[in-house]
Amino acid sequence: MTTETPDNSSSARLTPCRDLEPSPGPVAKRVPTERTHHGDTVVDEYAWLAAKDDPETVAHLTAENAYTEARTAHLEGLRAQLFEETRRRTQETDLSVPTRKDGYWYYTRTVEGQQYGVHCRRAVRDGEIAPPISADGAPLAGEEVLLDGNQLAEGHDFFALGAFDVSPDGRWLAYSTDFAGDERFTLRVKDLSTGEVLPDEVPDTFYGTAWSTDASTLFYVTVDDAWRPYRVWRHTVGTPSGEDVVVHQEDDERFWVGVELTRSERFVVIDIHSKVTSEVRVIPAANPTGEPAIVAPRRQGVEYSVEHHGHRFLILHNDGAEDFALAYTSADAPGDWTPLIEHSPGTRLEAVDAFENHLVVSLRGNGLTGLRVLPVGGGDPYDIDFPEPIYSVGLDANPEYRTNEVRLRYTSLVTPDSVYDYDLVTRQMVLRKQRPVRPGPDGRAYDPADYEQHRDWALADDGTRVPISLVCRKGTPRDGSAPCVIYGYGSYEASMDPWFSIARLSLLDRGVIFAVAHIRGGGELGRRWYDEGKLLAKKNTFTDFVACARHLVKAGWTATDRLVARGASAGGLLMGAVANLAPDAFAGIVAQVPFVDALTSILDPSLPLTVTEWEEWGNPLDDPEVYAYMKSYTPYENVANVDYPAILAVTSLNDTRVLYHEPAKWIARLRAVAPQGDYLLKTEMGAGHGGPSGRYDAWREEAFINAWILDRLNRA
């Protein structure tokens, strides 16, 4: 996370402005596309924009980019200034806190001027307990470079790692690369003893790998034509990928698969999951050719996950437990589940991590994350305490099973990312490193005391109280004069827990308030909060956000003409929906990789992710009620001739999750139906769902967006 009735007239409406003439295309492309479902016929004048490789589409996107650049040219100096502020505040040459695994410390370095991280390890020295720290980010003496992202990225506009998995014996590194942004990775194996990359590479793999105990076998995942992870494969190191064997194939299109090795390194776990149902199969890591054994057969509506601990499998589940409970079963002969932590409504259990002598449960209650420790073999469970009223905490990388110390990560809206080591026996917590924040443009060191964070509550239309987290410069007035950015997501039970952003400081120091609306559809207040913002209750997500925006004005935080909304992906759907629902509530809207043509996408099972999404949005293909409900809120379907706030849509040509043509069509229809508005489309022509891959490119993208926001807020 960085930081945050159609007009069927001439297709010339597609041109971004009158002095940028569209290139004439074949007449066939200009013929509207019709679809009919449940007796409803819809005309889509801009469906031709889905032809990604067509010169007309590329020309249109290029013209949109040129128009956006021309319309924002006056912000070039501000963009450069914002970029420089982020760069100046960031310690560019830095080193992560090393994580111990067997005889090595593993860490990542960044180097000033380089876009990507350098992945390294260094042998643990005799008597060395605490992780070695390099204050200035310099390489550790005796380090071994495992993978240099900068070298791999040479000659490519985009670069991302999918897998980075060292074998249990420390000899092999399985890694995968994507040079397009479409999240289709090529998997390779590197011999860390010689530095040689083996010839047995595997194209078109997905996230997730797992090693056998003896490191002879590597498990990985591939996707089907709809980009659904559906096959787990077994690869023998040193053999051609054509000899690989399918270990599990999931034919139910609602489900996807993943694979991982347990922390104990005893089992390879195949996780099979839909939005509401799951099944787990396990293979003894010492017997990689064995048949996967089912821990518990899938039952519709029952979700569970498995963690290995000694003689048992820990089962985190929602069987009769809305906010989940913890149980266990035999690892040798999985069967009945014996309760460990009973269901407690309002306390959502999210994960369990097993160590030899302790279990650590990640949970949330009252809108905040937390950690609960369960000593094994005696001792009362206890929660770890944290000082701030609003924060986010979770376990970090903890690869070792036999340890009494865990690594955790803590942050808040004012506290930079902080890495702690916590002793599970003595309950002592040691700060290993806090993300450095260098002095800003005024030369002053960053001081959290210069900022303040708040928790406020809005009242939704149905009387539900919706939490809002806010951060601002200390002394920011509460008389409605301060500008504000309100961020939202509200889908997939994803919680927008407080996070620190260096780039955000440039807004706060200019007097801007930053607010996060914890709306239904997310998971901030437990499973109920999610259920009340999905399927046929999805509109609660949108009305909650509008209620939060109006509350900020009513409470004096800001004023309507000083309020900009921002969201990405499913949060981009939120942006489009609230633009239609309450265009008067915002001075501007930023929609990044926005899911704004949701109904069209969810009606097409051949598109990536569609079938697996039916349990999130409903199936409009078969259910007339779902069709009518989705049509009533999908942004693209509901563009009207109203006075919209200024809109900036940012997308990526190679995005597989939300296809670029959704925002392209949306902006085109906005211009045709409500031509009095101010709409901009910016397309990254060589990136994916997460935008530009290099850190400097990502900072420039954020500077572009923040400059536009400040312009809308009259703070440019």
TrEMBL record:
Keywords annotated in UniProt: Hydrolase, Protease, Serine protease
The UniProt record lists the keyword Acyltransferase: no
Pfam families referenced in this protein's UniProt entry, alphabetically: Peptidase_S9 (PF00326), Peptidase_S9_N (PF02897)
Domain Peptidase S9 prolyl oligopeptidase catalytic: 499-714
Signal peptide positions (record): none
Superkingdom, natural source: Bacteria
UniProt keyword Protease, yes or no: yes
Gene3D superfamilies xref list: alpha/beta hydrolase, Prolyl oligopeptidase, N-terminal domain
Region: Disordered, residue numbers: 1-38
Polar residues biased stretches: 1-13
A molecular-function term among this protein's GO annotations: serine-type endopeptidase activity
Peptidase S9A N-terminal domain mapped to chain residues: 26-434
GO BP annotation list: proteolysis
PANTHER family: PROLYL ENDOPEPTIDASE-LIKE, PROTEASE FAMILY S9A OLIGOPEPTIDASE
Family: Belongs to the peptidase S9A family.
Protein's recorded name: Oligopeptidase B
The species this protein was found in: Micromonospora viridifaciens
